[in-house]
Amino acid sequence: MRHIVYLLLVANLLFFAWNHFQAQTTVDSEQSLPPLPAGVNALVTLQEHERDMSGPADGQDIEALTRAQPPGALSAGRCKALGPFREEVDVKAVADRLGDSGLDPVLRAVENRVENGYWVYLSGKDKEHAREMVKQLEEHDDNEYYVGMGYFISLGTFVDIERANIRLEDVREKGFDAILEQRYKTRVEYWLELPENTASFDLLDSLVGENPDLEIHAVSCQ
Question: Does the pLDDT of residue 48 top 90, yes or no?
Fold first, then answer.
């Protein structure tokens, strides 16, 4: 019985030594292999893949994934915007027409800064300076002025640049350092936004043909 125990012990030692030799031979052979050509990926077993995935993520790997598919990388939908409409009643009428054709436009109101004629004026330094300029205007029989806040003296507002220039030159010939500026105002405009598809192309073109003041713009759907 004792000899059988010794025999099993020797067999176990030989088996352990053989396994260790095989593992070391595999590692040495992997280290001695030539490098893979560029663009060729090494084959890995499912166990190796799961082992790698279970470990902590490397910062460079995360950055690479972020560059390849950054947050919000899905492209926004494309839409068409029809406008501008000056009156809300007009845009609603067109929206109803689009709705009757199976489209579902979104109405958007936008504030837009637009030109609003021209302004000719004198800039007073203080109250006394403004009074002196008014006195000089009256001495030249020029009563087309208005004294406003900030010591400025308005010499008129004009729709056309030609008339504004005539007033400017007239005042300058009298010895005043008049100023001509563009005027602006904020105006609310209405736009209809709808998805870009074949069904909307012909109808939008038809609407623009009927209303030359309207435009079609490509926008990102909101």
Answer: no
Among residues 162, 160, 159, 167, the alpha carbon closest in space to that of 120 is found at: 167
Write out the two tokens for 197: 């598809």
Q: What confidence tens digit (pLDDT) does each residue in 92-148 have? A: 999 999 988 888 899 999 998 989 999 999 998 899 999 999 999 999 999 999 998
Whether residue 177 contacts residue 122, with contact meaning beta carbons closer than 8 Å, is answered with: yes
Residues 49 and 44: their CA atoms lie apart, in Å, by 6
| CA distance to 104, 166, 178, 192, 209, per residue, from 162 (Å) | 46, 6, 16, 37, 33
CA distance 181 to 162: 13
Q: Which DSSP helix (H) or strand (E) runs through 215?
A: strand 215-220
Residue 106: enclosing H or E segment and its boundaries?
A: strand 106-123
Q: What is the CATH number of domain 114-186?
A: 3.30.70
For 160-199, the DSSP string reads SHHHHHHHHHHHHHTT---EEEEEEEEEEEEEEEEE--HH
Q: What is the phi/psi pair of residue 82, to 5°?
A: -110, 125
This prediction's pTM: 0.48
pLDDT at residue number 220: 82
Tokens 């595999």 belong to residue: 26
Mean pLDDT value of segment 3-28: 54
Residue with more model confidence, 84 or 43: 84
Biggest CA–CA distance in the chain, Å, is: 141
Beta strand 152-158 with 78-85 is unpaired
